[in-house]
Amino acid sequence: MSVIDEHLARAMELPGAVGASLVDCTAGLALATAGSVPAGDAEAAATGAAEVLYAASARAPFASARPHDTIEDLIITTVSGYHLLQGVPVPFGNQLVLYLWLDRADGNLAMARRRLADIADDLVRTPPDPPAGSAT
Amino acid sequence: MAKTRRQSETAPPGQRLSQLAGAGETGTLYVDGDPGGTVHLMGGVVTYVGSPAAPGVGALLTASGRLPEHTWRASLEAGRDVHRVGRILVEQGHLMQGELELCVLGAVYDAAFFVLTPAAVPVRFVPGELHWLGRIVDVEAAALQRETDRRRRVLEEIRPGSAVDHAPITPVARPPVQRVVLTAAQWELVVHADGRRTAADLSELLGRPGYATLQELRRLSAAGLLRDTAPPADGKPDPQPSDRDGRSAEATPADPATLARRTPPSTSSMPADTERTGPAAAAAGGAEAAAAPASASSGPASDGARRSTDPASTGGKPRARTGAATQDQVPPPRRRQHAAPPAGAANDAGPNPGPPDDALLDRIRAALKALR
After folding, report:
1. Quick one: which of B185, B186, B159 has its CA closest to B171?
2. A28 — contact with chain B (CB < 8 Å)?
3. pTM higher than the cut 0.90
4. Fewer CB within a 10 Å sphere, N or C end of chain A?
5. Phi, psi of B193 (to 5 degrees)
């Protein structure tokens, strides 16, 4: 199991989680997926996520209002669920987001949002317990 | 790129790859052509793909500043022969495993787009040959092919025609609209498009994935903000965008992608035959070089200056290029995978005895390439 999959699995442990994926938003591709995707169409979900992010970051001036501002996450609330897009901060390559689909009845948006940010961070940042790790 | 040594055959690379994957093969598939590349398999799954048109893992990590060049090089040295470069980067604490996986996945899909697209080219499989990176990710061959096809479709939707994918590109001198909105990525491209660099050059220089670069270039081209060739070489003093586009004032450029604006200025409409060879080309190129206000700073002198600073600036952006091993060769100062014939060709093109003028030769090279 790749580390990416492990982190998606962690996201899926959140209460109400229906599906999670890691999306390359520049290309519109799901690099990894866990659980369900909306309408069972992983490709459409990935390109949709990419378009939403593009709309918010490039077409709308929200993230350009101040210098060095940038989008951290986006939340789409539907009658039945929450759809969270959490940016994954990598300096190289394409723009990545962690996408989480939460059931609205069972999910806790505030908690999920915080946890998802942590998971995205963990995926690419040195964990807070450095000495334990790799010193080979 | 690897040429025919053993059973080289001509086949669609995607088809060959799916045979190899189906047979659970381990080894390296060399794909010829322009730009060509390599696909690395282990037990039938793809673990890495490399292409000169797509920055490899090393280029992505160093150009972005994520890894210092010397760190990358040391790891490459240490792990190349034992195919453990990836593991070493993680074990020594330079990268998180997650980062590495993300980087490799991105690079694999990116390169696959260039390697798997051609219909039929010479391909050759070397069983047992492993990539120095090691096995960091597993990607299904079928998924790669599917994604490659999808990306191809997306590009065509943005703007049909692949001229900006291959030719040197230049921003138009005057935008066809009164207000222009660019994303940061587009800005970077515009700033660095100097009429000599191709898409592949820009990807390499900026450390951006090749496909992402093509997407943005096509968007810019669809919006009429980029031209895909050198200015016409017929001695016309003005590059055409100014007259043609000056009148097309208002429009909303906010979304280049959907701006299905009338065909953007200039494709290679220049007289092909006069350009093909020799002195004629040189003369025409000369006229054009002298009269090319379009490219921000043109003219032999400034071109020469720019050229001389090039190595320095690219040195600043480490171009560690994923190592010498198989596909990612490190060509010295600069290269132009899609764009130009080998350096020798340019010299052959101008048999005129005068002192060799680099800028001029470059332009001729670009013009010739654009005619292909």
Report:
1. B186
2. yes
3. no
4. N
5. -80, 110
